[in-house]
Amino acid sequence: MQAVPDHVPANRVFAFDIFGDPRLKPDLHLGYKQLHDAAPDIFYTPLNGGHWVVTRHAAITDITRDPGVFSSRNQEIPRTGQNTQMGPLTLDPPEHTPYRQILMQIFAPSAMVELEDHVRYWTNRLIDGVIADGECDFVRSISSVLPVSVFMQMMGLPLDRLEEFRGWVDEAFRTTDTPRRMALYGRIVEFMTTLIRARMDKPENDIISRLLESEVEGRRLAFEEVQGICLLLFIAGLDTVVNAMSFGARHLAGDPALLKRFKDEPIVILTAVEEFLRRYAFTNTCRIVARDADYGGVRFREGDMVFLALALAGLDEREIADPLRFDPDRKGLAHKTFGGGPHQCAGRHLARIELRILFEELSRRITGLRLKPGTEPTFRAGFVMAVESLPVEFEPA
User: What is the set of domains in the chain, with CATH numbers?
Assistant: First the structure.
């Protein structure tokens, strides 16, 4: 446990472990929600090297929009002595803008719509593999394979190494051992470097080849810049949408009426996807304080780390009425699952397409989705929260 800095008043100190706090068991989101009543809106935890935690939607929004004070250049808690460069994620405006524009072009809505048939093919292929059994671990059989397979093909990654790559990313998000996380990042960069060099010699129709052809301020991306962007895409592409699907399926397994409604009224899936993203938000992020500043009654000092609990933004009753209630008909939702400010997730359009198609095909092809008796889902906390296992049963529709 880190000593509390002198500039942090005692009434702002609240011990909370973002990687394994007891409040997060057995339900991550209900555990986080307890913070709204138990802790100040912005508090300091001496765990994991010591850092601030921000829990309210308005404050999270303000902080993500103020990179001059709250910089993205360090994304590590516990804080490391080195800054891992991951494309636009670890850059602040205006420096990050041209790099973000490259990703926005690659993941443009029009380009993602063209992938719908491909996503639907993969969805039904995976359902085909389990439907006769009437049961599966949903995470292992479907949600950890569907978006990852689509993304790996877009990147030009070898599909036969899917489980190995997923293991790297899962451990990187899980561990609090900084040297181990850095070693995993290094392994990813080493692999991606080999692939980047191969595309330099022989371009293909994939994201890496497009990055190598991209320009910033009239010049091609430097080799190290391509490496950093590829590290970011590898980590994000192999884990994030997986968790959106897993949390959504966990809800459906306890809400048979909603699965039936999806079958009878497929149009409701569009708003339900947003409600899944709000109610079961799975991402969090952090900032480093670039200069001394006061905000929300808190005195931040240069070098402080700030954890933004994005998973709590959509559970804030100051913004959302009855936030713990799942309502597939909600409109105009306030959530931060894809981040906010200049670092909003570039892949959000593809994520929404993949979620919609998954729930369309599940509701069309199966019925009676439920948790397998005698089993319990398991979870991972941290920056990207996950359902690790989800044993379910069902019948063919």
Answer: 10-396 (1.10.630.10)
